[in-house]
Amino acid sequence: MLLTNRVAIITGGAVGMGRSMAHKFAEEGCSIVISDISDSSGRKTADEVSKKGGEAIFVQCDVTNNSQVQDMVNTAISKLGKIDILVNNAGALGTTWSLEEVSEEDWDNILDLNLKSVFLCCKAVVPLMKEGKYGRIINISSMGAVSPPRSVVHYHAAKAGVISLTQNLALELVSFNIHVNAIVPGPIRTEYYEPRLKNMTDAQREDYFVTKGKTTPMQRMGKPEEIAAVALFLATEPSSYITGEAMNVAGGLPLMALVI
Ligand SMILES: NC(=O)c1ccc[n+]([C@@H]2O[C@H](COP(=O)([O-])OP(=O)(O)OC[C@H]3O[C@@H](n4cnc5c(N)ncnc54)[C@H](O)[C@@H]3O)[C@@H](O)[C@H]2O)c1
User: Fold this and answer.
1) 124 lies in a domain?
2) Residue whose CB lies within 8 A of the most ligand 1 atoms, among 11, 45, 188, for a mutation test
3) Residue 241 annotated as catalytic
4) Cβ distance 123 to 172 under 8 Å?
5) Ligand 1 centroid to 8 CA: how many Å?
6) β-pairing, 7-11 with 178-185?
7) Which domain holds residue 127?
8) How close is the Cα of 175 to the center of ligand 1, in Å?
9) Distances (CA, A) of 120 to 33, 88, 101
10) pTM score
11) What's the rounded Cα separation, in Å, for the pair 55 and 31?
12) Do the domain assignments include residue 111?
């Protein structure tokens, strides 16, 4: 197993990509802290992992709140003893997108959730990784940060900030054996799309996902397991010479401009 005796915090680990990563890491022997704002789905995922023989605890935490982040990290240490891997995965798109629609409050909320949270979690965890002389940090950005399919001013700016933060932390932490990388997902079929699909029938939802998938050269949306597989790579020995990278996992999406 690739992650025996390792401990990982996965923020936003209750559903979607985070849930998939929790399962995949646990299958490789990793102990998991599933951290999420959602109590019911967070507990459910921790139970699922435990029932499959993995070690997982749920710690409720709003990653935009510094004292909750500190408490979450303290709980992780008191229950599991150390933190080797941090996946900064919690995030959301919001419901307003254009410059005209987005209020100052929307801007602050989306920047806090998608960018400040990464800073807060790294600030809480990195001193412990330094003590342990080992760390793997994986930050989840978005294809919209580098190649936006449409204007989403706050979310795409935040996710671009995630790539910059990844590069800066990679430089700052490389001499401590702490590697910092980002994953840049294309469209992945998860609960992330729920705010936009609330009033749709099942058939309309399917149509939406098929159409969305066709925006990629692979002509389909990605699956959360396909993000989890790359996160596993970045958390384990096969990626030992990689830091400061932002890896596209997007069905060839950045090539689309060349295809059209
Ligand atoms: N799904 C996509 O197409 C896509 C594409 C690009 C990037 N992303 C990014 O990937 C990451 C994972 O997305 P997903 O698709 O699995 O989304 P998801 O909506 O399925 O899961 C997000 C999780 O984050 C949690 N969360 C939300 N706000 C939180 C907060 N304040 N504190 C703690 N947890 C919070 C939610 O409860 C949920 O469990 C996000 O950062 C998202 O922005 C998603």
Assistant:
1) yes
2) 188
3) no
4) no
5) 17
6) unpaired
7) 7-188+223-252
8) 31
9) 17, 10, 28
10) 0.98
11) 5
12) yes
- What CATH number did the domain enclosing 111 receive? 3.40.50.720
pLDDT beyond 50 at 260: no
Token duo for residue 234 = 């970045």
- Per the domain annotation, does 26 fall within a domain? yes
Domain assignment present for residue 234? The answer is yes
Q: Are 126 and 73 in contact (CB under 8 A)?
A: no
| pLDDT of 43 higher than 60 | yes
Distance 260 CA to ligand 1 centre (A): 30
Contact 34 CB / ligand 1 (< 6 Å): no
pLDDT in tens, 79-88: 999 999 999 9
State the Cα–Cα distance between residues 51 and 177, nearest whole angstrom. Answer: 33
Number of domains in the chain: 1
Q: Which protein residue has the closest C-alpha to ligand 1 atom 30?
A: 62
Contact status, residue 178 vs residue 130, Cβ threshold 8 Å:
yes
Q: What is the DSSP letter of 246?
A: E
